[in-house]
Design a protein that fits this description.
212 residues; Metallo-beta-lactamase, Chain A; six-stranded mixed beta sheet
């Protein structure tokens, strides 16, 4: 069973997660470099095995390069359709925010259903396009790390380059159909559960499936 810690980072209050299983650690969506996060990783001990990215916007990837340099053995992953965000400041939105010299980096690419071994846990990547073309959720044990796809009673914006409102609604419907009692750890805002979102999130209503 994984353990989860959260740090809120960056100008947009991104939820950055550290997860642990046995002696392995993973870092999800490091928005910026943070001594707090670095110290937490060191204090937890074990090995940083993965840096996992839910999508390629600057407020979720800004700290990746520095963490890669500090933990060179950690493998970085992102959905295959967001690869361009790693080196294109138009798609990662850093140019929109007038951020100069945004750090570029490389990552290994994931497709829908890919599985990563993590301690005694399997982390499954689920493609959930909409906020970006390559957005995805990481599902491990009873946890969904949903990035900017699913928020408490809301969802991510779909007015950016490479966004798609219709894809977002389809992704939310697919998430709503997942089985089990699952906790939701979003990219911003409060934690939730999938049951709560099925019942209270208007964007998860089955009626939306008829729109497209």
């Amino acid at each position: 069973m994984i353990k989860v810690k959260c740090a809120i980072l960056g100008m947009l209050g991104t939820n950055c997660y550290i997860i642990r299983d046995e002696d392995e650690l993973a870092l999800i969506d490091p928005a910026v470099y943070s001594d707090k996060v670095y110290n937490a990783l060191k204090e937890l001990g074990g090995k940083l095995k993965y840096i996992l990215l839910t999508h390629g916007h600057y407020d979720h990837i800004g700290g990746v390069k520095q963490f890669q340099e500090l933990f060179p053995d950690a493998k970085t992953y992102i959905g295959k359709n967001d690869e361009k965000c790693l080196t294109d400041d138009y798609f990662n939105l850093s140019s929109r925010m007038a951020i100069r010299n945004f750090p570029h980096f490389s990552a290994e690419l994931l497709s829908n259903g890919d599985v990563l071994n993590f301690g005694s846990t399997k982390i499954r990547f689920m493609e959930t396009p909409g906020h970006t073309a390559g957005s995805g959720c990481y599902i491990a044990d009873d946890c969904i790390f949903s990035g900017d796809t699913l928020f408490r009673q809301s969802c991510g914006r779909t007015d950016f380059p490479d966004s798609s409102p219709s894809d977002m609604l389809k992704s939310l419907i697919r998430l709503s159909r997942l089985k089990g009692v699952l906790r939701v750890f979003p990219g911003h805002g409060e934690f939730s559960t999938l049951d709560y979102e099925r019942n209270n999130n208007p964007y998860m209503s089955q009626n939306y499936e008829d729109i497209y």
